[in-house]
């Protein structure tokens, strides 16, 4: 079996530079919003000349859409358990595990998405009307299947999904509030694990899955 070709040094450098740009862009867009962010601010945050930034992303909107699409792709992967699990305990439980971990590791991406939607989605409305709508209906079908099989109470799948999003993303979008109420400290590994288990138990018991 032939070995997979290793990326060249040039390609590795390109990937590393793009990753640095996206990390910086997430933070700047999260803190300044689309309107307040500038390509110069993002270039400075990434430690790159502005010209290099434009080489990878010609416009601010192109970079912004890439940041939004990347966080959404991460969320899509988190929902794989909803498509394959045979019961809500496994499916929704695994989804909560994944979404809580995303909030922990990608707080800026979550804030970018939240800010965009709260402002009426001026840049990604088309994304909401197509990709997100299709994704939501697919997950709603899995929930309806579990309801039909008697594995959980008959609840509105869309409102359950909204609750899952709101609860798990709260830990990213309102991280400062949680930190303040945690005696000014970020949640420790043990506290994140406890929070995740609490969210799972409350929601799974609420829908009659356990």
From TrEMBL:
One term of GO molecular function: transcription cis-regulatory region binding
Domain of life according to the entry: Bacteria
GO biological process: negative regulation of DNA-templated transcription
Domain HTH tetR-type: from-to ranges: 15-75
Record-linked Gene3D superfamilies: Homeodomain-like, Tetracycline Repressor, domain 2
Keywords: DNA-binding
UniProt keyword Protein biosynthesis, yes or no: no
InterPro entries: Homeodomain-like_sf, HTH-type_TetR-like_transc_reg, HTH_TetR, Tet_transcr_reg_TetR-rel_C_sf, Tscrpt_reg_YcdC_C
Keyword DNA-binding among record annotations: yes
Xref: Pfam families: TetR_C_3, TetR_N
DNA-binding region: 38-57
Name the record gives this protein: TetR family transcriptional regulator
Organism: Cereibacter azotoformans
């Amino acid at each position: 079996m032939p070995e997979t070709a290793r990326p060249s040094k040039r390609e590795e450098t390109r990937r590393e530079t793009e990753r640095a740009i996206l990390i910086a862009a997430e933070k700047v867009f999260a803190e300044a919003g689309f309107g307040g962010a500038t390509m110069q601010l993002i270039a400075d945050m990434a430690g790159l000349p502005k010209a290099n930034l434009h080489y990878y992303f010609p416009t601010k909107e192109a970079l912004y859409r890439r940041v939004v699409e990347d966080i959404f792709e991460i969320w899509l992967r988190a929902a794989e358990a909803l498509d394959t699990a045979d019961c809500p305990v496994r499916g929704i439980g695994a989804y909560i595990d994944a979404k809580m971990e995303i909030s922990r590791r990608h707080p800026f991406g979550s804030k970018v998405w939240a800010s965009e939607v709260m402002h009426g989605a001026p840049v990604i409305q088309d994304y909401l009307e197509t990709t997100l709508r299709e994704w939501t209906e697919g997950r709603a079908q899995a929930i309806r299947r579990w309801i039909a099989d008697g594995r959980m109470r008959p609840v509105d799948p869309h409102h359950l999904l909204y609750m899952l999003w709101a609860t798990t993303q709260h830990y990213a979008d309102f991280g400062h509030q949680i930190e303040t109420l945690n005696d000014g400290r970020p949640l420790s590994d043990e506290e994140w694990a406890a929070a995740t288990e609490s969210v799972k138990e409350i929601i799974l018991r609420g829908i009659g899955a356990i």
